[in-house]
Amino acid sequence: MNSMAAQLETILRDVLKSDEAQSCDSILLSGGLDTSIAAEIIKEQCNGKSALNTGITVTIDPSSNQLATKHNLFIKQPQDIEYAAKIAEKLGLKHHVLTPTLDELVHGPAMDLCTQTLRTFEPMELRNAMVIAHALLHAKSLGLSRICTGDGADELFAGYKFMQQMDQAKLCTYIGEMTKTMRFCAIPLAQSLGISVWSPYLDSRVIEFATQKPGIPPNLLIGEFAGAIHGKLILRQAFPHVVAAAHIKEPIECGSGTVVMPALAEHLISNDEFISKICEIKSQFDINIADKERLLYFQSFQRTVLADSNATNVLPRYGPNACPGCNFDLESAESRFCGVCGWYLTTNSVT
């Protein structure tokens, strides 16, 4: 093991034996590297004192989603469950495997929790958030109160594919910028339910290590491990023994199966219905709906945000930095993206 990986191992082991870690009673067990490390090292170091006894995994069963299956939208079986099951078995966790249908996620309490809390109908956010919300609602129903997640590892240690093309200077700058802007939906979603989430990768010691100057060399972040090229290489080198050490990174929407939502929306809503609905929404709310997936999510947004006259956190509109897509105010004059509808400045349209 190289010296930087050894240093990171020491830091994370210290973080994962803290009271904050040991008091987690459950984990959102995606089956990926980040939660594999968190769960396994918490239990490894607990001396029988850890509260961690439950893992929660959300996965879409293609056989329960007939329309998506009929149109061959599931190119491959969602992968999260395979690794999550192995981790839970290794650690003796009570493993709650949730298999909601896509219809239940889109039209059920998870979506309403997302739109009401996150104040958005933006598809990329909601494909991931609805999975997390469904898991947190289940955790709440079980009486669990402190849930561990793997948030932050991808941002800090080059888990995303687009980061793998950057040189050291650019990568170091980008990671530093990410620490100032990164946000994770699990935190506000949990708070709205009266429970809490915690991630070891958001500990100040881990962030300080990841953002050190001149930066972690790219060859320690991206490289070969177990016969394949991976991001987060330094984490894999620090903890090569964990179950998911060689698991290839997948976004939540891919690992769980919600990645099919854009294509599914095309089959759920006819072109005539889409045109009729978006004209109605434009007339009533002065909001442009760019595609059918957004229309699906807007139904919940309309119900939980626009119709909530008693909301204490009303979204401002029609300011000097109003979004051209939905007219809700952007965060600043420099904003290139609208977190409410997903409008991108680069295209001058909702994309």
UniProtKB/TrEMBL annotation:
Keyword Nucleotide-binding: yes
InterPro entries reported in the protein's UniProt record: Asn_synthase, Asn_Synthetase, Rossmann-like_a/b/a_fold
Keyword vocabulary terms for this entry: ATP-binding, Nucleotide-binding
Name of this chain's protein: Asparagine synthetase domain-containing protein
GO CC term (a single one): cytosol
CDD domains for the chain: Asn_synthase_B_C
A biological process from GO: asparagine biosynthetic process
Domain of life where this protein originates: Eukaryota
